[in-house]
Fold:
Amino acid sequence: MSYRAAVITCSDRANADVYEDRSGPIIREAFEALGFDVAGPVIVPDEAEVIATEIRLAVADGARIVITTGGTGVGPRDVTVEATGPLLAYEVPGISEAVRSIGAGNTPLAWLSRGLAGVIDHGDSRAFVFNAPGSRGGARDAMRVLGPLLKHIVEQLDGADHNIRPDTGR
Structure:
């Protein structure tokens, strides 16, 4: 079964065509290699409400996995985390910790990423969201951690292996 995924690049410069989107294509290619149906590129400015709207639209359009890239640092325009947090029903902190840890093996700057991982309940749709760093290395680190987990995450979102009700045993 093929699942739908979305990649949202959050960057004022990439949105204004001043700067090439370097991380979004890496994540899209990794999704495709894993057999996911990936929506076309979405590049938005570092505006919290715009980012939140694009995440909601991706989930409403059927994306089961949404990865944002960029805007996770400590700069004044890094607002991706603030846009994502209020959308989450709950966090899955181990993912962010693993990506930072792997990245720190290459650069101490990885510890500055504030990216979140968690689940969105949007109407009848449930999706997993992760805020990846906006660098090529950060995108690769994110997919190195997430790649083996993504299909299992979607299956778990759909209740796989957890359909037995405790009150009935069935």
Remarks:
- The chain has one domain: 4-157.
